[in-house]
Amino acid sequence: MRQQIAAANWKMNLTYVEGQQLLKDILDENIETTENQLVIFGVPFPYLMMANEKVNTLKNFYVAAQNCSNKKSGAYTGEVSVDMLKSINIQYCIIGHSERREYFNESNLDISEKLDLLLGAGLKPIFCCGEPLSIREAGTQNEYVEKQLRESLFHLSAEDLKNVVIAYEPIWAIGTGKTATTEQAQEIHAYLRSVIAKQYGQEAADGISILYGGSVKANNAKELFSCPDVDGGLVGGASLVAVDFVEIIKALK
Ligand code: PEP
């Protein structure tokens, strides 16, 4: 069975002490994960080392950065490079989140450059994609998201693709409390998997985890994750509340 993942995206929330407490509250629950289940905490840069120290003795628990530079190193004030993340033993990095695409003008090309740097350094990208409301209303979401995949991912070798996690996040569902129905989620996840199958073969498509993101909550996670092509979730708001995120982890297949 491919990996089932509960990934938290704290975004730009919580002080250091609040972050420590949230992690403690979640880890104190001593959640048992199965072989194929992963829990990943996407925390702000200044908290990466603290979070990594807390989870690094736990099997199947990891920490992710929420972004990285598309430049290798040099005079890019304020940027954080992939090599810096690697040097503090971070193993995952969220890239292409819709908030970065929208507020920081990240293009599919920028994201593909980040992807290459991450994979080159041995880190695993959590690649976000998803359509805005206008595209969903026009009914062209499949083509829209396929283009995001083609322009950022499909230059990869089949070997590199194995180290990528995809997070499908319809923008109209992020932070809005409006969740895609299980039918909507399953339909587009299955479509994306079929696109990957056409490009890389069925085995590669069957092996890649595709997470759903967009108002995943404790009370809808089980239903969403039960869809055959939904392999867990990327969770914003609900990942900031320990009891809720614990329930979401427990909802993994
Ligand atoms: C996200 O941050 O990727 C996200 C899906 O947020 P939320 O769960 O709050 O909708």
Automatic annotation (TrEMBL):
<keyword id="KW-0963">Cytoplasm</keyword>
<keyword id="KW-0312">Gluconeogenesis</keyword>
<dbReference type="InterPro" id="IPR022896">
    <property type="entry name" value="TrioseP_Isoase_bac/euk"/>
</dbReference>
<dbReference type="Pfam" id="PF00121">
    <property type="entry name" value="TIM"/>
</dbReference>
<comment type="subunit">
    <text>Homodimer.</text>
</comment>
<comment type="pathway">
    <text>Carbohydrate biosynthesis; gluconeogenesis.</text>
</comment>
<feature type="active site" description="Proton acceptor">
    <location>
        <position position="169"/>
    </location>
</feature>
<feature type="binding site">
    <location>
        <position position="175"/>
    </location>
    <ligand>
        <name>substrate</name>
    </ligand>
</feature>
<keyword id="KW-0413">Isomerase</keyword>
<feature type="binding site">
    <location>
        <begin position="9"/>
        <end position="11"/>
    </location>
    <ligand>
        <name>substrate</name>
    </ligand>
</feature>
<keyword id="KW-0324">Glycolysis</keyword>
<dbReference type="InterPro" id="IPR013785">
    <property type="entry name" value="Aldolase_TIM"/>
</dbReference>
<feature type="binding site">
    <location>
        <position position="215"/>
    </location>
    <ligand>
        <name>substrate</name>
    </ligand>
</feature>
<protein>
    <recommendedName>
        <fullName>Triosephosphate isomerase</fullName>
        <ecNumber>5.3.1.1</ecNumber>
    </recommendedName>
</protein>
<comment type="function">
    <text>Involved in the gluconeogenesis. Catalyzes stereospecifically the conversion of dihydroxyacetone phosphate (DHAP) to D-glyceraldehyde-3-phosphate (G3P).</text>
</comment>
<comment type="similarity">
    <text>Belongs to the triosephosphate isomerase family.</text>
</comment>
<dbReference type="InterPro" id="IPR035990">
    <property type="entry name" value="TIM_sf"/>
</dbReference>
<dbReference type="InterPro" id="IPR020861">
    <property type="entry name" value="Triosephosphate_isomerase_AS"/>
</dbReference>
<feature type="binding site">
    <location>
        <begin position="236"/>
        <end position="237"/>
    </location>
    <ligand>
        <name>substrate</name>
    </ligand>
</feature>
<dbReference type="InterPro" id="IPR000652">
    <property type="entry name" value="Triosephosphate_isomerase"/>
</dbReference>
<comment type="pathway">
    <text>Carbohydrate degradation; glycolysis; D-glyceraldehyde 3-phosphate from glycerone phosphate: step 1/1.</text>
</comment>
<dbReference type="GO" id="GO:0004807">
    <property type="term" value="F:triose-phosphate isomerase activity"/>
</dbReference>
<feature type="active site" description="Electrophile">
    <location>
        <position position="97"/>
    </location>
</feature>
